[in-house]
Amino acid sequence: MARPEGAVRVAGCLLAVFALLGCGPDRGVEPAPAAGEAPSLAPPAAAADPRPAIVAFGDSLSAGFGVPVGQSYPDFLQQRLDEAGLRYRVVNAGVSGDTTSGGLSRIESIIAMKPALVVLELGGNDGLRGLPIESTRANLERIVTALKPSGAVVVLAGMTLPPNYGAEYIGRFERVYKDLAAKHGLALVPFFEGMAGRGDLMQPDGIHFSVEGNRVVAGQVFRTIEPLLKR
User: Fold this and answer.
1) What range defines the domain where residue 127 resides?
2) Among 42, 78, 92, 230, fewest CB within 10 Å belongs to which?
C-alpha cells in the first residue's frame, strides 16, 4: 500500500537529521565546543609599540657581533631608558660589515621608521679597509643631511681604529667625526672612550665589544642622548 505523501516528507527530514548528527571531524564538520568551554578564537594581532623610536643605525658594533642575543649595546640602552622612566623603544638597525656607503643605500628604510632620534655609528669598516677618508666623510655627511628633514635628532658616534693603522691615519679618521659634529651641531658620543686595551671590555679581536663593553657603550650613549629626550 502507498504511504501518504506527508509521511514520506517526515521520514526524509528525519534521515537528513540523523545523517548530520553522524558527521564527525573526519567528515569536514567542526565539533561544537564542550559545555563550559569557550570557542577557539585566533589570537589578537599584537598592538604596535606607540613609544617614539631611537634607532641604532650602524654596523657590527650596533648589531652585537660576537655576543649572545639580547646583549648588544642597543639592548642595554633600552634597559637604561626603562630604568630612567624614559618611554622610548630602541630599534637595532645594525648590519655587520656595513660601510658608510652601505648605510647610505639603506637610509630610506631608516627614515621610514620615523625615528625620534638616530645614533649614527658607521665608518669603522671604511677605516679597517683603508677606504679614502674623504669618501667616508662625504657619505656620513650625506646620511646626516638626509636624516635631518625627517625631524629625527641625529647623534654621531665617534670612531677610532687599531693602533697598527698609524697615528697620522687614525688622527685624520677621528677628526672626520669631530668636524661633522661641529659643522652640523650634532652631539658626539665618545664611543671608545677608556676602552682601548681593556680585555674585559673588548673581544679577543680587539675590534668588537664584549658583553661588559656593550654595557659601557650603552652608558656612554645614554649620557649623551638623555638631555635630548622628552620625559
Assistant:
1) 53-228
2) 42
55 pairs with which residues across the strands?
91, 118
Query: Is residue 35 domain-resident?
Result: no
Per-residue b or e along 162-196, where b marks 16 or more CB atoms closer than 10 Å to that residue's CB: eeeeeeeebeebbebbeebbeeeebbebbbbeebe
Q: Is 184 a catalytic residue?
A: no
Catalytic-labelled residue, pool 59, 62, 75, 208? 208
Q: Tell me the three state secondary structure of residue 3.
A: coil
109 is catalytic: no
- The string of pLDDT tens digits covering residues 159-209 is 999 999 999 999 999 999 999 999 999 999 999 988 877 899 999 999 999
Q: What CATH number is given to the structural domain containing 90?
A: 3.40.50.1110
- What is the structure's pLDDT at 197? 79
Q: 107-139, pLDDT tens digit by residue?
A: 999 999 999 999 999 999 999 999 999 999 999
205 is catalytic: yes
Considering the candidates 59, 60, 62, 98, report the single residue annotated as catalytic: 60
